Amino acid sequence: MQRSISHIIAADLTKKMVLLTGPRQVGKTTLARELMAGWKYPQYLNWDVAADRRMLLDQSWGLRTDLLVLDEIHKMKGWKAYLKGTFDGRADGQAILVTGSARMETFRQSGESLAGRYFQMRLHPISVCEWVTLTKATPEAALDRLIERGGMPEPFLAEDPVDADRWRQQYFTDLIREDVMEFSRIHEIQVMRLLVELLRERVGSPLSIASLARDLQAAPNTVTKYLAILEALYVIFLVRPFHRNVARAILKEPKAYFFDTGYVRGDAGAKFENACAVMLLKHIHFQQDALGKQTDLSYLRTKDGAEIDFVLCDDGAPTHLIECKHADNRPTSALVKFAGQFSSAQAIQLVCELRREEHRPPVSILHGAKWLAELSA
Fold first, then answer.
1. SS3 label, residue 195
2. pLDDT of residue 179
């Protein structure tokens, strides 16, 4: 299945090295192998394969290799320096695609610099926009399937919903066993599992670190550390409050959403909101990675409790104010209030089950599936 960013990566490979990150089993290796079909002498090397590891250490891949795909290379000691040397010493015209986990993004924080040598692309779960484009499915059918199965390719494409549930259970077990152990100690694993269970029931609600710490009988700093691990592993992502002062926004309570909507334990409204969050994040990451835009995703909340689900910003200025509802077509008072304060932004109430779209100034009531299908990714 060709993904929506495939053609962008193909073009970028002719200019620089491409670093492709994303959740486990989101389709990075599949995408890489599909891209290889467009090259004459491609070579795929995976650090986890013993024979490939020897070739990587010896740099003994074929002399005519025109596309070199390096998978899981971040597990190599000193991999950042290795990548820099490989790119700088590559043969003329040789393209390099590097795939791996979210931890690869930490290369910008310390160690060897890859500045000027790469483009970053993030592969997300399947979205309404992507599925409609690939299959000509209706937006409503695509959204229903995404809410039920989540957007990870294997459960999403499974014919039997039971197979999707079995995949999800095994996925988290493997993730805990293989990845979390690299971040933390054995005795912390059970607490991490409990944290995930708590988060499943708090999707879309501002997170109180103190409350989570009490529930887990752990220190607040420990809970913050665990949230960072889950975020680094693409289990969850945090949406922070909008504020023109970024430092203040970081200090306020974030909201947590799951990359895989199938993890959400809640009513239809919570699942719809999580699905919207995943697709909005995919949209802004596409804007950042493919178009170089300074976009971001946040939510808006005042001290008196008035709140809207999402704010899309471009260069710090709100462009869209978004409230998500399963079936309520009455504009919320908070959305009306904030629409008056940010008159240049579009105020939208996305409704999953809606009979008719309408405009009730200053708010537009829109079909959720249809609007999501028109996002950029």
1. helix
2. 67
